[in-house]
Specification:
The chain is an alpha+beta fold and 252 residues long. Helix content is 18%, strand content 39%.
Length: 252
Amino acid sequence: MKPLLNLIAVLLLSSPSFADTPNDAAWLREKGQMIFHDAFEREEAGNGLKAIGNGWESATADRVPKIKQADLDEGILKIASATKEAGHAAHIHHEAGFTDGGAVIRFKFPGISKGESLQLGFVDRELKGAHAGHLCYGILSQSGITLIDHKTGVMNLEIRKQREEAAARKEKPAADLEALLKTKQITVPYKPDTEWHELVLVTEGDELRLSIDGKLLAHHRSEGFAHPMKRWFSFLVPNTVWIDDVKIWKVK
């Protein structure tokens, strides 16, 4: 029986589900350099742009200065977006600075709001060809995980212009344009809960990958993912999310 068991072990270890699935947390540790870490062990200083501290900026905070959208509570960043009042979901970012690399966070949907979701990813405000420098994101919703290339997709200025012009004419965007945009993203099923989880989002060349608790759940290739400088790491939160820990890693 031992030779048969050994053969089974070899086959399992050499199958794509075991050997070829990347462990991106290990990849970051082994190949990269941690360039930022925050465990949020402090109190916030009010509700303003820089109130979270440690280099974070809340780009929507000054729209609603009397509403607390980011609360540091016992080492947890508790985000509660005043989306309706601010006219925009809470947008919180920090400097990053890499070509290949990524972020590791601990997060939790606390179950306070209906339809809790989290968008996280990378921005380059020096990029002129995309709206607000949006590059690429992973989006967790109540039904799925989406990986999306914004740089060469919906946030590309020329593409935005074409779609806005079509909307102004009350027409559908050109079919070939919409077909192109479908290639810029992928969505896979996902059912969130209200427990703590570790999420890893990385870019390597033209690939974006998202893992939760060490399991690769989504990966996609698109040219915008290879943008040479991810200057910011950002959260976009339309409702409520808790963040316990953030590490940003640079591989190159």
